Amino acid sequence: MASLASHPALCPAPGAVSPSRRRGRSATSNPSGRFEKHQRVDLDDGWGVLDDLPPFRTEIVHEKPRTLITRNDSPDIAFERSINPYRGCEHGCIYCFARPSHAFLGLSPGLDFESRLFVKDGAADALRRELAAPGYQPRVLAIGTNTDPYQPIEREYRVMRGVLEVLAETNHPVAIVTKSALVLRDLDLLAPMAEKGLVKVALSVTTLDRELARAMEPRAATPSRRLAAIEKLSQAGVPTAVMVAPVIPGVTDHEIETILARAYAHGAREAGYILLRLPLETRDLFANWLLEHFPDKYRKVLALLRSTRDGKLYDSAWGKRMTGTGPYAWTIGRRFELASARLGLSETKVRLRTDLFTPPERGERQLSLF
Q1: Can you tell me the distance from the alpha carbon of 204 to that of 206, in angstroms, rounded to the nearest whole number?
Q2: Which domain holds residue 265?
Q3: Number of structural domains the chain divides into
Q4: Measured between alpha carbons, how far is 333 from 193 in angstroms, rounded to an integer?
Q5: 97 pLDDT exceeds 80?
Q6: What is the mean pLDDT of residues 356-362?
Q7: In CATH, what number is assigned to the domain containing residue 218?
Q8: To bridge 93 with a disulfide, which of 78, 118, 217, 344 should be the other Cys (CB 3.0-4.6 Å)?
Q9: 98 near 246, Cβ under 8 Å?
Q10: Which of 252, 255, 297 is nearest to 276 (CA)?
Q11: Spatial distance between the Cα atoms of 90 and 92, rounded to a whole number of angstroms
């Protein structure tokens, strides 16, 4: 993809961080969060001070959650409950709609979101307490809907592993979404759960272009490794889906059919898609990324997005935010549906079981008299 390497930025965005300091990251800047009283911007005053600043490195903050399950009643989301083992995501996807959540922590949705990460220590214990609560009724838990549970730091901290062990022990249903081949590490848990109808896994594949993926999602698994993960999960009996998400107008939209066909060939039997969402600070971060990597497509991409959001870059209205409206959005939806139907994707959807749930024991176990 010659355009990525050959096009310089038209002009640096205000507060842009030098490429040497953000190597391996996708955001081009680190703007202050919208709740901060003061906005801080790094500007070169000609003395070369910015050149001496250290590169952004991954920093870990540990927190101990009292509860782990998040509940929602959004009518356009297919799950009621979710778990996020981490806050922030080292995958660094430039388009990630979860970026604005870092502003609630007093941090930047830009480079901070990719490099200042929060690990939920004791997550498995917190989950165990919630599942043991009197009257708890099991529903499918979605994991990976905000930040990726298998992002690189999971190799060391194993928060997702601990959560999955509790779910396997209690026969609790779970649906997982990830961009990481690290999910294969947990096949020893996932395969037995799949035999009981307790788990399904979706791999998000945004593009099949390795170079583009590296620029957009710099620390996620390569597209080929994601497809290989789909194949190995499927061979192990785990129901597997592909998420063509997000579809980026003018950048990845031409790949919809190819991604679906490749994923089906590797064993995926369900599919979904989401049109690019740019809430709050994500809008400017993505626009600056476009300006740096695709200056020739900058206006076209944003114009196409506006055509799907009634002239705006984002519309948060339920029923519209995931797929958009208008002729272009309609065309994307029909292309996805036709390609899925032709392949036989999503002809039947796997429904996970809730009737096998066994609550964990509360407190210290009382020995039986006999």
Answers
A1: 6
A2: 57-274
A3: 1
A4: 33
A5: yes
A6: 92
A7: 3.20.20.70
A8: 217
A9: no
A10: 252
A11: 5
